[in-house]
Amino acid sequence: MVTWRAALLLGIAALTLPLFPSPWWAAAALGLAVLVASIVDFALAAPLRDLALSRRGDSSVRLGQTATVRLRVHNGGRRTLHGEIRDAWVPSAGAVTPSGRVIVPPGTTVTLEATLTPTRRGDRPALRVTVRSHGPLGLAFRQRSGRPATPPWRVRVLPRFASRQLLPEKTARLRVLDGTIVTRGRGQGTEFDALREYVIGDDVRSIDWRASARRSDVMVRTWRPERDRRVVCVLDTGRTSAVRIGDEPRLDAAMDAALLLATLAARAGDQVDLLAVDTAVRASVSGAGRQVLLARLVNALAPLQPALVETDFELVVGEVLRRERKRALIVLFTALEPGALGEGLLPVLPRLVARHKVVVAATHDPVLRDLTTRKPQTAADVYAAAAGHRALAERDRVASALRRGGVEVVDAPATEFAGAVADAYLTLKALARL
Q1: Distance (Å, rounded) from C-alpha 389 to C-alpha 383?
Q2: For the DUF58 domain, which residue ranges apply (predicted)?
Q3: Residue 46 DSSP label
Q4: Is the dihedral angle over the CA atoms 298, 304, 306, 309 positive or is it negative?
Q5: What is the CATH number of domain 230-430?
Q6: CA angle, 173 as apex, 289 and 429 as ends, to 5°?
């Protein structure tokens, strides 16, 4: 292929045509000369078959953070490569790649570094590497692009775990809870820990009279929070999860809360499972240990996207009952919508509540509260406030119906959602109701 330089050279030569006796013959001669020069330049360009491309760098990154992927270009031929290399990624990868000409002498390697700041979760693949080798005159070039020249690479964009900053606070509360139950807890379902001497302030109902008689001292039983319980996070990936709550979809807010809950439960000694379901099971993590829990969860959640279908709650309940034979805490992350829950979840809910403790966790846009609290200035503001009141009233009706069915409901704005779910878990654990 020829470059703009060949056309420029031909244009400059055309300015001299009036100097020749026969302009037509001169034009043909000049065109032939430029063509021959371009063919020679093309022949002298470094062949692309001798190039070897490979990649190194980050294979995963959290949403909002930056990854670096390096493209290595090795020239195995005998000619120096004077060329251009374009490394193309999908637009949502947010790739910034170096531009300009590169020079790769024979037997050497050049590294080009691409910086990626993705704007969406999931797998962000490299599309195509285009290599252009110029001749020494710059009149023609060789070019290769597509699969033969592109080393495969993808960067998995993990969910944003913004609620991680709440983890120290919730963990500290968990330690306080642990200490409180060890010294005074006697609630139903707590586990016996050890015997110790009675101190002023202990509950007299914790006195072990047989042990006291054996040791000739007043001994009390100590208790600890229940451990090795099962916590199942169920994500609704149906159409309601695609609604944007603030700056992100509802599904992303649910993921953030689920990650905080799972990490906290693992630190408390509980077993954590995860399901993502709409009309089929989209992701499943079972029996993850504390050391690999977070890594397995974020990798399972990363490629999930909302499906524009109605969630099959019959399938959700069936999957939970099939997988969890023993009593467990089921946290269902969904939306408090009368249509979705009234027709789908409420009819099958008694089967789930009969065997497990169920918590329905839903988030709403803080704009709803703003619409109902700010002072209206115009007629449009009055209608907006009425719509906000109606939306919140419908959510309250659904929440009341769920509570009458024996379900705990967590309904909080997106900015407080993850912390509210963690608080609900800690409260149930303190009351020994897991």
Answers
A1: 10
A2: 195-366
A3: P
A4: negative
A5: 3.40.50.410
A6: 65
Cα separation, 99 vs 85, whole angstroms? 7
Extract the tokens encoding 129. Answer: 């590497």
Report which DSSP code applies to 77. Answer: S
Say if residues 371 and 388 touch (Cβ distance below 8 Å): yes
Q: Cα separation of 5 and 184, whole Å?
A: 87
Q: What is the pLDDT of residue 25?
A: 58
Q: Which token pair is 187?
A: 């609630």
The confidence score (pLDDT) of residue 182 equals: 42
CA distance 433 to 359: 12
- Provide Rg for the chain, Cα atoms: 33
Backbone angles phi, psi at 341, to 5 degrees: -85, -40
**Rounded Cα–Cα distance for residues 97 and 88 (Å):** 8
Among 93, 15, 107, residue whose Cα is nearest residue 60: 93
Q: What gap in Å lies between CA 426 and CA 430, rounded to an integer?
A: 6
Q: Which two tokens stand for residue 25?
A: 């013959």
Rounded mean pLDDT for each run of 10 residues along the chain, 434 residues in total: 61 62 65 71 78 89 91 87 87 85 88 91 88 77 67 90 89 74 42 72 78 83 68 91 85 92 88 91 78 81 90 91 88 85 83 91 80 79 82 84 89 89 89 74
Q: How far apart are CA 152 and CA 139, in angstroms?
A: 32
Tokens representing residue 81 in the block:
């490569």
| Phi-psi region at 299: left, alpha or beta (left = phi > 0; alpha = psi -120 to 50) | alpha
Domain extent listing, the chain: 4-44, 48-158, 230-430
Q: Which residue has the tokens 């252009």?
A: 132
Q: What is the reported pLDDT for 318?
A: 92
Domain 48-158 bears CATH identifier 3.40.50.2300? no
- How far the first Cα of the chain sits from its last, in Å, is 71
Say if residues 177 and 265 touch (Cβ distance below 8 Å).
no
Closest CA to 244 of 303, 306, 166: 306
Closest CA to 422 of 233, 240, 284: 233
